[in-house]
Amino acid sequence: MTSDFLLLQKIRNGNNHAGNQFVEKYYSFIYQYCFLHIHNQECAEDMVQETFVRFFGALMSGAEIGKAKSYLYSIAGNIIKNYYKKKKEILLDQLPDIEKDNLSEIEIRIDVERALDLLPEEIKETAILFFFQGLKQKEISDLLHIKLSLVKYRVSKAKELLSKQLEEGRD
């Protein structure tokens, strides 16, 4: 992205406003990505902060960034993996923070998140990136360093498994 390239150059040159613009541009994407993995608002916020700290550290040390969005997802993914390595026990019964108090929307969201948690890890990762983060399959392929055909398979498998799990949940 040209605009990202220009923002990153400004950041490297010490422009704090450009850094704030960059964070504002990607904060919600990275937050949602982290939250869908861990279902804890405070922890997700900490992970997002750590993601940007690492990103800016790499940027200022001269690392070749490439696509900024992919680089951010890669950092966040590593932070999530490290979180689960440190925390052996995953609490599945934590409820997400939901601003709306519509009970049916809460139930649907809980059902979707539980179904998502039941997916095999590699399919879950692809499903989050595709369905919830809105990344294109080619972007997912580049980010995860896998073939496009494998991404397509995982997306279709995720659709199949999620619909099956959500149907079973309604019975």
Automatic annotation (TrEMBL):
Residues 111-162 form the RNA polymerase sigma factor 70 region 4 type domain. It comes from the Bacteria. GO terms for molecular function: DNA binding; sigma factor activity. Residues 22-88 form the RNA polymerase sigma-70 region domain. SUPFAM superfamilies: Sigma2 domain of RNA polymerase sigma factors, Sigma3 and sigma4 domains of RNA polymerase sigma factors. One of its GO terms (biological process) is DNA-templated transcription initiation. Keywords: DNA-binding, Sigma factor, Transcription, Transcription regulation. Belongs to the sigma-70 factor family. ECF subfamily. NCBIfam families: sigma70-ECF. This is RNA polymerase sigma factor. It comes from Fusicatenibacter faecihominis.
